[in-house]
């Protein structure tokens, strides 16, 4: 799994002695971009952890996701021998997908997936922005390319 293979040690990720306020705005910008690149896999793990937390604490959403998954699996697996009819009309494969998607969206809406999505995205962006802004990039090992994140200076 490409991105997750580059995960940094959690002890380095949460080392509290490396959290410092940036001395200037150009350094903040450089620090932010360097940390986002360096800890990319860790930030992805934070997102996945928050998403798993939401699924565990919202059982109806978990049931909706499992039902949507198995509905999609039923539509895509095996030969197309199942011919559902609605009001005497036989549904084609694209129509079956449309009905499945509409049903999944309705289930997710009833389970509150929209609120969960915005909560997870908001919490992830907040955690990533705070960590990337305040974690001192100078404490990280030196980059191979010194011009990768050039210092922005005002003229």
From TrEMBL:
This protein's GO CC annotations: Golgi apparatus; membrane; synaptic vesicle
Bilayer topology: Multi-pass membrane protein
Transmembrane segments: 43-72, 97-121
Pfam families: PRA1
Major site of localization recorded for this protein: cytoplasm
Keyword Transmembrane carried by entry: yes
Keywords: Membrane, Transmembrane, Transmembrane helix
Compartment annotation: Cytoplasmic vesicle, Secretory vesicle, Synaptic vesicle; Membrane
Entries under PANTHER family matching the protein: PRENYLATED RAB ACCEPTOR 1-RELATED (PTHR19317), PRENYLATED RAB ACCEPTOR PROTEIN 1 (PTHR19317:SF0)
Recorded family membership: Belongs to the PRA1 family.
Name of the protein: PRA1 family protein
Protein's organism: Trichoplusia ni (Cabbage looper)
């Amino acid at each position: 799994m490409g991105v997750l293979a580059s995960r940094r040690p959690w002890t380095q990720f949460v080392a509290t002695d490396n959290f410092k306020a940036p001395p200037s705005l150009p350094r903040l910008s450089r620090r932010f971009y360097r940390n986002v690149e360096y800890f990319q896999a860790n930030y992805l793990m934070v997102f996945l952890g928050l998403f798993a937390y939401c699924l565990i604490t919202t059982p109806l959403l978990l049931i909706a996701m499992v039902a949507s998954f198995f509905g999609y699996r039923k539509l895509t697996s095996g030969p197309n021998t199942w011919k559902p009819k609605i009001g005497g009309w036989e549904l084609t494969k694209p129509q079956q997908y449309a009905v499945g998607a509409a049903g999944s969206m309705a289930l997710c809406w009833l389970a509150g997936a929209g609120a969960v999505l915005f909560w997870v995205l908001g919490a992830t962006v907040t955690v990533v922005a705070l960590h990337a802004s305040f974690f001192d990039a100078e404490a990280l090992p030196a980059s191979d390319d010194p011009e990768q994140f050039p210092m922005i200076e005002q003229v």
